[in-house]
Design a protein that fits this description.
By secondary structure, the protein is of the alpha+beta class. It has a domain of 29 residues. The chain is built from 3 helices and 2 strands. The chain has a two-stranded antiparallel sheet. The longest helix has 27 residues. The termini are far apart.
Length: 96
């Protein structure tokens, strides 16, 4: 059987553009884990004033017109834009 915790020297080859290289990792030089901070990251963020301001003002639901108002505007805006463009073309045709 093969030992799953077998630590052997690994060599990785890479190519970036025209440059080639090798990276070797030895068992003694494995990356160390960083220690966890005393508090949870989310708890620390929630305590900050900037995070509270962000939650209260930037991410609140925006007020806007209701569906009863938006449906007539959806029809009226293209009609008004078309009428305005026709009026502008008419005004330009009257120029000497």
């Amino acid at each position: 059987m093969m030992d799953s915790k077998q630590k052997t020297e690994r060599e990785i080859t890479y190519k970036v553009g025209w440059k080639r290289g090798k990276i070797s990792q030895k068992a003694e030089k494995l990356p160390l884990e960083e220690p966890e901070p005393d508090g949870d990251k989310e708890t620390i963020l929630r305590k900050s004033a900037a995070f509270r301001w962000n939650e209260q003002w930037l991410w609140r639901e925006a007020r806007g017109p209701t569906g009863r108002v938006l449906k007539p505007l959806l029809v009226a805006f293209p009609v008004a834009a078309f009428g305005l463009s026709l009026w502008l073309v008419y005004q330009l045709s009257l120029q000497p």
